[in-house]
Amino acid sequence: MPKLDTEKRICFVGGGNMASAIIGGLVAQGYPASNIIVSEPYAAAREALTSKFNVHTTEDNAAAMAAGPADVVIIAVKPQVMKDVAAGIAAAVQQHKPLVITIAAGIRGSDLANWLGGNGVAVVRVMPNTPALVGEGATGMFAAASVTDAQKDLAASILGAVSKATSWVEKEELIDVVTALSGSGPAYFFLLVESIAAAAVELGLPADVARNLAAQTCLGAGRMMIDGTDEPAELRRKVTSPNGTTEAAIKSFEADGFREIAKKAIVAATKRGEELGNALSK
Ligand SMILES: NC(=O)C1=CN([C@@H]2O[C@H](COP(=O)(O)OP(=O)(O)OC[C@H]3O[C@@H](n4cnc5c(N)ncnc54)[C@H](OP(=O)(O)O)[C@@H]3O)[C@@H](O)[C@H]2O)C=CC1
Ligand SMILES: O=C(O)[C@@H]1CCC=N1
């Protein structure tokens, strides 16, 4: 992982959930809050960012970019407002030529570069996830051929500071698959924990006990997949005693088409990313 240069001034445009997760992760890793500025229209969100992380905030995107000026701009607004937001900061981007990192689902790097005025603006498209807040993010990244190795290293070092897994993908379309897998992925595990805990509550466990046991099981299973060398299928096999309780549950999952359900969901999310990119292109 390239070394993180904490001297770089980072400007976040949009200070919502995902920006907060990355900022929180960076600050927790020792990134100086004085080198982070966030532009966010919602006053309560600005106040929360300042009080939690001590970062500078403003409601003026162009002013946030110019303050410093920023070496890196991380655009963290919803895909639907991206084009307008880009138009509002294009002049500052053209003037200061920062590295631009977009985390928006679907939006293509080439579209964003055009909205920012083109002219060789360096755009790296990344897909992090909210566990970045606790330094456990997983991030996929794509850069066009025109982005230099130094710029790619800078992007990787920033996302790497809040991610335990970072990977470059060769084709931009694959970022939509990454979005479906790990960008949206935390929600799938939350849904699973919600579902199995709710079932346990119906069977008599107190809600807090069910939630804590289910959440810790999720974490423990994740740690075994990360720390050990066994593949997930082998780890599953080791839990599954012949004719035991796990086998009963797994058979029930399989009989109800669990793998098909999972595949369908990943395909749906990938398709949604592509749709967003197509609908908002140009
Ligand atoms: N949430 C996640 O897990 C992940 C999200 N992403 C991507 O990150 C991006 C942000 O998502 P998320 O953080 O969830 O969304 P949020 O709505 O939480 O954050 C977006 C923020 O941008 C602000 N905003 C709206 N308009 C502007 C503007 N014109 N200028 C500056 N800021 C503006 C919003 O303010 P207000 O609320 O006042 O409108 C809001 O605080 C999306 O593109 C999403 O695809 C990527 C990976 C994971
Ligand atoms: O749901 C979304 O569109 C965003 C992108 C990945 C996670 N949240």
UniProtKB/TrEMBL annotation:
It is an enzyme of class 1 (oxidoreductase). NADP(+) binds at A76, V77, K78, P79. Gene3D superfamilies: NAD(P)-binding Rossmann-like Domain, ProC C-terminal domain-like. Pathway: Amino-acid biosynthesis; L-proline biosynthesis; L-proline from L-glutamate 5-semialdehyde: step 1/1. Residues 172-276 form the Pyrroline-5-carboxylate reductase dimerisation domain. GO terms for molecular function: pyrroline-5-carboxylate reductase activity. It comes from the Eukaryota. Belongs to the pyrroline-5-carboxylate reductase family. This is Pyrroline-5-carboxylate reductase. It comes from Rhizophlyctis rosea.
